[in-house]
């Protein structure tokens, strides 16, 4: 009886436990089970080379990362917009001028979009351009030496995001204001006005930077634009060559809480710019020259690789309200981010980041609408084309938060969906989604080698993800960003590899290694060293005093400095160590580090000269040494500088090898 | 029939074994190669190993060429070699009295192989802690350096 | 009613004290960008993230699509619920002491009605929360609403939301079960 009762009073436990157990659903998280097949595809055997160079912007580290694909190996980092203590970029006397701007010396930058130079719509391996978003600049990196060779500042601009995209023959590189700022009507000078006068005073500009055959950049013209935010850009190609497209958002012209106030309009605009016509206008002296101080800094190879800064006072500005056929607005839903032109040059896909479709405009229809003056209206003097008339169609269900699109060689487009964390593959003609793949996590840009050119390589795609979280061994709160390599050679996308990338890569570009590999300098010819302070042999080494400036002409070779004993330096002197590396062999840099110098080191490649400025503050004997393990006797590669008091009468003297 | 099959099978097996053997251990192969030191020809003993494979004679010093040689020497060689004293490398004051022009040119143009294979270069090299580097001279420039060294050796 | 049944009834009432210490219901969300999951637990007097900042992150996500912020302080039900359970515990203990079978049924009836009312209320809250969207939301998906499921899973855009009872609810079920059993077994008394 009592047993019965016990049993009967216990059954609710059993029932409840059963219900609880049944309702415990298990959720799967779509982890990719790495297969040996994927491993084989990304394996590059020791001593073998990768198939592609990948140039990944470093984002807030200001530099350009170089990665091998498909292995994902980080091969190199090219210093661009940020000082790099690792090799003295921006610290040594030769490169300091590269950081000159109208705001003075700016030691940091935010590098976003690398873009390879193109010839006939194809990447040619000569240069990589990259924009700086914070203090508007564009840099050109030479792929013969993987070094930044030129940096030009963009005036009348605040935030340079829609940059640095090239035209099919690298005639121009683009730039635009991400943030409109108050600029007066006559000469676009900064104004001291209340921020809430935004609608009255704030304007934007779009800039076209001419690139010469040698790569020299100069601002050919700027176009005055309404005070929106200009976000990204791509040039037309093939039939649409001669045009460039810029997305804009904040057509609401909000100046506070943009996340709400700039997300109200159902449509913003893509600005279609007839740059060919603009160039004609500029060549004919149309528009007007207005003040626009900006610096062009370049490494002068004629003068020993010493950087020079040139101040340019004026720019030509074209006004679309006065010049016909310069700019048209294409209405595009909703706060579009990326704008990408397919390889045929016929379609313009926009990543309407808050839109639930991907609108694709047709270039042919756009031209017809322009011809028939098929306008919805105008926006601050710029004609707005009729959305229905220019639309090729909308991609339905493209994932949430579509941002950027690149293309393969088989008529497919690939779009990142930031919010739904996936990449969606769709057919450019039929606009049908044909495949999708989850990426981890929240992709921004994506990259297919040649994916924004007329000749994409349809083998690999790299997703550049904005959130890393649990993808690698944890490194505290701050982590490298994650990239993922996806095989796009087949019908279905296949995830092959995760690899970490330094800084915050926004965009990347890839190019077949063959196009770049063969043109590499291995060292600089010592005979060709025309640095004004070079010592091209030990015979030329010396120390010269000129007032309180002391110039040390020094050489390095495995494994000694000449001179390596220096006396007669005084507290308060400005000492310049001009160090020439006499080696003529691949991969034998020497370093130069000075105890207590308020500076970085020098890292001197074979055959070149670099200069470190040192201002000794204490009396004593200070060692210097080579930082790059150059030979078995690297630890012996050192020297001493004797620093005497300001009023001492120790004469300058120097020697090597005398005991 | 049967016999041929067996022979065939054996051949295949042996081939496979050899194949495995071949791909097995590159390290042993490398060391084996090192041990088999190639015999140098008499010419190589006298004139060194490298791109210069014919005798070169200097009858009369060409002062123009020697001057050019001096400039090259200062730039590419002077950081390690003095004429009269031991420095990073050996002194070169009387070098042309003990070595042939071709030997010196091969030493300049092909130091890696010379230091590895030539007994004379090896023994001199062993007295100096720093190995001679290849300074990427053209043959013409090496020839000019030899002219200068010949002038200095007189 | 014999002592054993009274004790059982007392147990049925007293185990409800556990409800104050564990969640009653939970909503969890799975999305590719949240590998470790993200979710919230509803307790007797609060709504909490499963992890420290989950609620903040959920509110952060929701504001893009214009959903109201989940603020426990502004949900009156959470103020009342502790008292409801308090009433059930005290009345249950009193009934156990008195030992009147009729009252057990009455207590059970109130309990079940309160539970149903709670679920209905939860559904209405979810409906309002998922339908009543801010017209100024940055992302507007035509025809899309975001009502979380009452029980089970539902795909909301790329997030799979799963709503399930938690231990507190099972304790309540257990309590009802024990009380029901006591009532059933005592009919021969």
Could you list some keywords that capture this structure?
heterotrimer, B: 154 residues, mainly alpha, Cytochrome Bc1 Complex, Chain D, domain 2, 2 domains, 60% helix, 0% strand, globular, C: 189 residues, alpha+beta, five-stranded antiparallel β-sheet, elongated
How would the blueprint of this fold be written?
The complex is a heterotrimer of chains A (659), B (154) and C (189).
Chain A: H1 2-23, H2 36-42, E1 52-57, E2 64-69, E3 73-78, E4 100-101, E5 104-105, E6 111-119, E7 122-132, E8 137-142, E9 147-153, E10 172-176, E11 181-182, H3 198-201, E12 202-211, E13 217-226, E14 229-235, E15 243-249, H4 258-261, E16 268-274, H5 275-283, E17 288-300, E18 306-318, E19 327-332, E20 336-341, E21 347-352, E22 357-362, H6 363-371, E23 375-379, E24 382-385, H7 387-390, E25 391-396, E26 402-407, E27 412-417, E28 422-427, E29 433-438, E30 443-447, E31 460-465, E32 481-487, E33 494-501, E34 508-512, H8 514-517, E35 542-546, E36 549-557, E37 560-562, E38 565-570, E39 574-581, E40 590-594, E41 602-604, E42 609-614, E43 620-625, E44 638-644, E45 653-655
Parallel strand pairs in A: 13-18, 36-39, 38-44
Antiparallel strand pairs in A: 1-2, 1-34, 2-3, 4-5, 6-7, 7-8, 8-9, 9-17, 10-12, 11-12, 12-13, 14-15, 15-16, 16-19, 17-18, 20-21, 21-22, 22-25, 23-24, 26-27, 27-28, 28-29, 30-31, 31-32, 32-33, 35-36, 36-37, 38-45, 39-42, 40-41, 40-43, 43-44
Chain B: H1 2-22, H2 26-35, H3 42-47, H4 63-76, H5 95-98, H6 101-109, H7 111-117, H8 119-125, H9 139-153
Chain C: H1 3-14, E1 25-31, E2 34-42, E3 47-49, H2 54-64, H3 76-98, H4 101-131, E4 152-156, E5 159-165, H5 167-185
Antiparallel strand pairs in C: 1-2, 1-5, 2-3, 4-5
Helix pairs in contact in C: 1-3, 1-5, 3-4, 4-5
Keywords (chain B): Heme, Iron, Metal-binding
Organism (chain B): Fodinibius salicampi
Pfam family, one (chain B): Cytochrom_C
């Amino acid at each position: 009886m009592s047993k019965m009762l016990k049993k009967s009073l216990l059954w609710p436990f059993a029932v409840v436990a059963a219900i609880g157990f049944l309702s415990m659903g298990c959720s799967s998280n779509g982890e990719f089970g790495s297969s040996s097949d994927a491993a084989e595809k990304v394996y590059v055997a020791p001593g073998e080379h990768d198939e592609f160079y990948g140039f990944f912007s470093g984002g807030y580290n200001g530099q350009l990362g170089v990665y091998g694909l498909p292995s994902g190996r980080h091969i190199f980092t090219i210093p661009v917009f940020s000082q790099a203590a690792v090799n003295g970029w921006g610290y040594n006397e030769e490169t300091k001028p590269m950081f000159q701007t109208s705001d003075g010396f700016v030691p940091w930058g935010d590098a976003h979009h690398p873009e390879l130079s193109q010839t006939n719509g194809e990447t040619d391996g000569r240069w990589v351009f990259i924009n700086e978003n914070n203090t508007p600049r564009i840099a050109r990196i030479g792929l013969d030496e993987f070094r930044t060779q030129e940096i030009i500042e963009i005036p009348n601009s605040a935030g340079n995001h829609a940059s640095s995209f090239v035209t099919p023959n690298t005639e121009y590189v683009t730039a635009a204001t991400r943030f409109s700022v108050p600029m007066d009507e006559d000469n676009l000078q900064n104004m001291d006005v209340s921020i809430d006068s935004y609608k009255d005073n704030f304007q934007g500009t779009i800039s076209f930077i001419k690139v010469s055959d040698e790569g020299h950049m100069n601002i050919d013209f700027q176009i005055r634009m309404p005070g929106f935010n200009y976000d990204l850009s791509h040039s037309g190609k093939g039939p649409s060559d001669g045009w460039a497209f810029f997305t804009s958002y904040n057509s609401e012209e909000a100046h506070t809480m943009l996340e709400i106030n700039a997300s109200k309009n159902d449509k913003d605009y893509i600005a279609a710019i007839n740059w060919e016509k603009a160039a004609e206008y500029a060549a004919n002296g149309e528009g007007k020259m207005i003040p626009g101080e900006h610096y062009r800094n370049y490494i002068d190879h004629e003068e020993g690789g010493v950087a020079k800064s040139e101040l340019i006072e004026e720019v030509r500005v074209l006004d679309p309200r006065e010049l016909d056929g310069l700019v048209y607005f294409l209405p595009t839903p909703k706060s579009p981010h990326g704008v990408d032109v397919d390889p045929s040059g016929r379609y313009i896909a926009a990543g309407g980041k808050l839109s639930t479709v991907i609108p694709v405009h047709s270039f042919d229809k756009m031209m017809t609408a322009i011809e028939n003056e098929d306008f919805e209206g105008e926006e601050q003097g710029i004609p707005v084309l009729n959305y229905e008339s220019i639309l090729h169609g909308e991609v339905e269900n493209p994932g949430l938060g579509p941002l950027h699109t690149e293309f393969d060689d088989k008529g497919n487009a690939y779009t990142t969906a930031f919010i739904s964390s996936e990449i969606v593959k769709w057919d450019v003609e039929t606009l049908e989604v044909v495949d999708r793949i989850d990426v981890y996590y929240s992709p921004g840009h994506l990259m297919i080698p040649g994916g924004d050119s007329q000749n994409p390589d349809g083998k690999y795609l790299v997703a550049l993800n904005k959130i890393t979280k649990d993808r690698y061994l944890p490194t505290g709160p701050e982590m490298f960003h994650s990239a993922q390599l996806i095989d796009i050679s087949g019908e279905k996308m296949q995830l092959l590899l995760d690899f970490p990338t330094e800084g915050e890569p926004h965009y990347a570009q890839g190019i077949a290694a063959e196009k770049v590999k063969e043109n590499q300098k291995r060292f600089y010819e010592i005979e060709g060293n025309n640095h004004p302070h070079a010592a091209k042999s030990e015979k030329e080494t010396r120390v010269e005093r000129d007032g309180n400036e002391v110039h040390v002409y020094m050489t390095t070779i495995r494994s000694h400095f000449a001179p390596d004993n220096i006396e007669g330096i005084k507290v308060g002197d400005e000492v310049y160590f001009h160090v020439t590396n006499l080696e003529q062999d691949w991969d034998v840099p020497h370093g130069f580090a000075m105890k207590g110098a308020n500076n970085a080191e020098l890292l001197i490649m074979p055959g070149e000269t670099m200069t470190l400025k040192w201002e000794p503050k204490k009396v004593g004997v200070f060692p210097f040494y080579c930082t790059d393990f150059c030979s078995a006797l690297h630890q012996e590669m050192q020297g001493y500088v004797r620093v005497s008091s300001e009023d001492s009468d120790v004469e300058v003297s120097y020697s090597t090898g005398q005991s | 029939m049967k016999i041929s099959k067996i022979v065939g099978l054996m051949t295949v097996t042996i081939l496979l074994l050899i194949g495995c053997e071949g791909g097995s251990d590159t390290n042993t192969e490398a060391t084996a190669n090192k041990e088999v030191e190639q015999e140098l020809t008499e010419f190589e003993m006298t004139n060194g190993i490298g791109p210069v494979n014919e005798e070169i004679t200097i009858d009369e010093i060409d002062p123009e060429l020697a001057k050019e040689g001096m400039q090259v020497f200062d730039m590419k060689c002077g950081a390690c070699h003095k004429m009269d004293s031991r420095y990073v490398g050996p002194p070169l004051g009387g070098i042309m009295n003990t070595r042939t022009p071709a030997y010196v040119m091969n030493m300049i143009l092909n130091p890696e192989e010379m230091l590895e294979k030539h007994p004379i270069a090896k023994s001199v090299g062993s007295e100096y802690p720093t190995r001679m580097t290849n300074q990427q001279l053209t043959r013409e420039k090496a020839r000019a350096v030899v002219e200068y060294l010949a002038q200095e050796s007189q | 009613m014999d002592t054993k049944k009274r004790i059982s009834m007392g147990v049925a009432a007293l185990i409800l004290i556990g409800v104050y210490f564990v969640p009653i219901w939970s909503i969890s969300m799975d999305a590719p960008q949240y590998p470790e999951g993200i979710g919230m637990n509803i307790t007797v007097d609060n709504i909490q993230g499963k992890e420290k900042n989950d609620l903040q992150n959920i509110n952060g996500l929701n504001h893009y699509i214009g959903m109201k912020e989940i603020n426990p302080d502004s949900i009156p039900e959470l103020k009342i619920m502790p008292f409801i359970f308090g009433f059930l515990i005290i009345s249950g203990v009193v009934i156990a002491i008195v030992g009147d079978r009729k009252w057990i049924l009455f207590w059970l009836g109130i309990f079940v009605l309160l539970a149903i009312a709670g679920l209905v209320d939860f559904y209405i809250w979810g409906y309002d929360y998922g339908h009543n969207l801010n017209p100024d939301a940055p992302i507007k998906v035509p025809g899309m609403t975001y009502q979380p499921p009452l029980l089970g899973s539902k795909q909301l855009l790329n997030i799979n939301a799963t709503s399930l009872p938690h231990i507190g609810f099972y304790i309540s079920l257990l309590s009802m079960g024990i009380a029901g059993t006591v009532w059933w077994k005592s009919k021969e008394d």
